[in-house]
Amino acid sequence: MRLEDLLVQEGVAVPVERIRRVLDEAERSGRHAVVALVEEGVIVEDVLAEVLARACGTVVVDLGRDQDLEVAQLITQTLATECLVLPVSTQPGGKVRVAMANPLDQDARRLVEAELGMQVQPVVGTLSGLREAIAAAFTARDTRVVKGQRTDI
Question: Residue 122's beta-bridge partner residues?
Fold first, then answer.
């Protein structure tokens, strides 16, 4: 199902023409669809996350609580930032639980699976939660303690 169709079906973001206009512009400019919808005020990020989770049969995760930095760093910062995704935990059977701003985005899912070499079990993260968690994960990776002093690399 496409994001636009889901929002129309759920009736959470109207008018339909505005959804289409924002998503069309996002596609033309290379802007992430979720970023465009939230920043243009089409839908509140918490509502969008709940709608996406319900549609995908999954949950919204609290990335402030559910974040494992070692697992998060299994993908590149570029992939995490561009696709708004972040691994949160490994699962039995060679799967990894990945918070996604848009779990309907099959291209993002394929990219993550290709980089990890593991099957993705999507969960939903809010836009702000993902942005903060991605920043924290990759800041933590780039921070080293050298002789008792913090050095940012």
Answer: 98
